[in-house]
Amino acid sequence: MAAQDLSQAIERVRSVLARRPAAALHADEPAVAAWEDDTRVTVSHANATQISTDMPVEIGGAGNEVTPGWLLRASLASCLATRIAMEAAVSGVRIKRLTVHAQGTSDVRGLLGMEGASGETITAAPCTLELQVSLEAPAIPEAQLRALVDRSYRCSPVCAALDPALRVALTIEVAGG
Question: Residue 1 pLDDT more than 70?
Fold first, then answer.
């Protein structure tokens, strides 16, 4: 879909929702996880898309699938990249290059239900999450691109689901014109 088509589609939906706000509320498509064996799980979507997950060999898995934690980071990165593309289309910004790199740190002891040396609970949640956005849009001032990414971050459903419960660090690298 061309940026102009994307922009028109978004504007059509905005127009409808401005007139009928109740139409904006909908049930999200469920993800159904089915245990396969050991630590392997397959998640299915109603459209027949399937994604298998497993744990690393060190934790008893086969290590040949992505982990559920990786899917979380993939969700953050892809949702923000999608939202930036949408915002750019509506704003008339032509993106030449866009990547979103999601990384974090975790303490495996939390996953294993272990306690710290003093008996404190160790969270299974990621300790840190960072999103690094690299964006290039010719002839667009850097400040405008940074504002576009900030708006997109605030409107990204996956980012909003995690932040502020788990502060996600956002780093923006802009190549403008």
Answer: no
**Closest Cα to residue 174, out of 121, 129, 116, 134?**
134
Number of domains making up the chain: 2
Q: How many CA atoms lie within 13 A of 101 on its CB side?
A: 7
Regarding pTM above 0.85, the answer is yes
Cα–Cα dist 105/111, whole Å:
13
Contact between 93 and 133 (Cβ < 8 Å): no
> pLDDT for 32-58, tens place per residue?
999 999 999 999 999 999 999 999 999
Cis peptide before 138 (omega within 30 of 0): no
Provide the domain limits for residue 145: 67-177
